[in-house]
């Protein structure tokens, strides 16, 4: 397909595609003649991948380049490749002057995790726990075990397809999975918080209002909220 068709299929403007070509994140098409190049389905997939990183993850082009370079040419050490990919994702945390991350070390000592003490993930965890404590939010020693087990369960689910992949595809999938699953998890967690808050308000009810509060029979739900339909109870069979 020509450049105009590539733009139409992907929904990305010709100017943006040319920018991707100049930046080197999109391979050039096959030259048919001096003024025309042909593009394939691989270019479509690549553009959608770039769009996901820039739009869904809001990554700057410099970080997109780093992630795509790791996908295209993984390092000899897969764990180093993944660590570099994590480092290309926000939040961006500076190295500690002494190279120590005590909050993360204390937390990870309670988990059966294998990790490099210099990895970006350790720095991010240390910074995140410190921020929670600085904000005087609820945080107990057992919380790390709770969150750690949930995180491990999610990772095991997400990485199931790796069993049938070749080594290069494994690295690519792990890198992109790290980048793209996180927004889904974050959005679901926020919606879960919203759901529980609404349910608590419903259970408490408005002062002087009917038992059950908003959402109870005959009581309107909070404006703008919705809920999946509840199927009617099965009818009892006649004997």
UniProtKB/TrEMBL annotation:
The keyword Membrane does not apply. InterPro entries: DNA-bd_dom_put_sf (IPR009061), MerR-type_HTH_dom (IPR000551), MerR_fam (IPR047057). Transmembrane segments: none annotated. Residues 1-70 form the HTH merR-type domain. One of its GO terms (molecular function) is DNA-binding transcription factor activity. Residues 202-239 are annotated as: Disordered. SMART domains: HTH_MERR. PROSITE patterns: HTH_MERR_2. The keyword DNA-binding applies. Keywords: DNA-binding. Residues 208-220, 229-239 have a biased composition (Pro residues). Pfam families: MerR_1. This is MerR family transcriptional regulator. It comes from Microbacterium mitrae.
